[in-house]
Amino acid sequence: MARPRTPKGRARETLARLSREYPDARCELDHRNPYELLAATILSAQCTDARVNMVTPTLFARYPEPEDLADADPAEVEDIVRSTGFYKNKTRSLIGMARALVERYDGEVPSAMKDLVTVPGVGRKTANVVRSVAMGLPGLPVDTHVGRLSLRLGLTTETDPVKVEHELNAMVPAAQRGIFSLLLILHGRRVCVARTPRCEVCVLNDFCPASRV
DNA sequence: ATCCCGAGGG
DNA sequence: CCCTCTGGAT
């Protein structure tokens, strides 16, 4: 297909072309279960996945289950996660998250969005990451990259991440929402960067309304 | 300087 | 809606 003219058409074409461009796109946060991915995602704010992956082996060895983390000494957790930045907030979130799982969800990560977002440190973006990556459930994480690219590509006119998420949900099949988000993030980092997008090397530049090529 | 998949609080 | 929280890599 060439030059799709509707938002939905552009969304489908974006998915097709970026899948070809980044065939190995996947979540790069190391984890073995939803609890570990939830913790890793909390740690990933303003931090590279590689950095998170350097601290999580120690974190998960020390606190293998939510029950262990719920009773953790904050100072000890801070020492483990310090290098990921925002370490006081992240420590509070991690311990609060673990306590919520133990006290309200029988030590399991809840799968419903309405439950997930009540957990300390877990917003919609994090909830959608855990749902789509660790649970195989529909979820389309909208972060700064997904929001920016969706606007530029004319997939939406909204700037509120929740509204963007709902509009994208209406255009992307449930089974592909997770990968769609991952692809936009990758493309947003490598090509469609915030400041000066590299439109001249972008595989979407023939139909992107914001292209300056 | 700028970037790295944010969430909570005022 | 804006502010704050934070360290590491480039």
3D architecture notes:
The protein is an all-alpha fold. It folds into two domains: 7-25 and 140-201, Orthogonal Bundle (Endonuclease Iii, domain 2); 34-134, Endonuclease III, domain 1, CATH 1.10.340. The protein is built from eleven helices and no strands. Helix 2 runs antiparallel to helix 8. It is elongated, with a radius of gyration of 18 Å. The two termini are 20 Å apart. The mean pLDDT is 96. It binds a DNA duplex (10 and 10 nucleotides) through residues 27, 29, 41-42, 44-51, 82-90, 93, 120-123, 125-126, 129, 141-146, 181-182, 185, 188-189, 193-195.
Question: Main traits of this protein?
Answer:
11 helices; Endonuclease III, domain 1; DNA-binding; 2 domains; Endonuclease Iii, domain 2; single chain; 0% strand; mainly alpha; 213 residues; 55% helix
Give a quick rundown of the structure.
This protein has 213 residues and is mainly alpha-helical.
